[in-house]
Amino acid sequence: MKRKRTAFVLAALLIVAAAGIYFYYGFLFKGARDIASEKADFNITATKLLEAYNEDPKKADVLYLNKTIEITGAVTKETDSVITLENTVFCLFTQKIKEKHLDHKVSVKGKCIGYDELFQEVKLDQCTLNQPHN
């Protein structure tokens, strides 16, 4: 009888553990977003985005923060993995940027992570570059 009880308790623990793992991986831990495959929630120019943050930062955060947005503007600075549009939108890419786009109009899709008051820039991460507009 003790063996049946021990087997029952062990089986119950295994079921609870399996349910916990299923719940954690199925509902709580969904992994990172794939911004590149998401449709943009907003299409906006770099200057309009900065204007929105300068006018009302809280309202702009409600609209844009953690959303996938597509920004259009001229590239004013660039490094291996960063493009700055119109000196106002800082775009961090997940991979190195192979071609140079300085002084060209481009469209960048990324996740808005907020406004940096120190540098007076809107920050985007997980960016992908769409076709240049030239």
From TrEMBL:
Please name the Pfam families in this protein's record.
Answer: tRNA_anti-like
InterPro entries registered for this protein in UniProt? Protein_unknown_function_OB (IPR024422)
> According to the lineage, what is the superkingdom?
Bacteria
What's the protein name? Nucleic acid binding protein
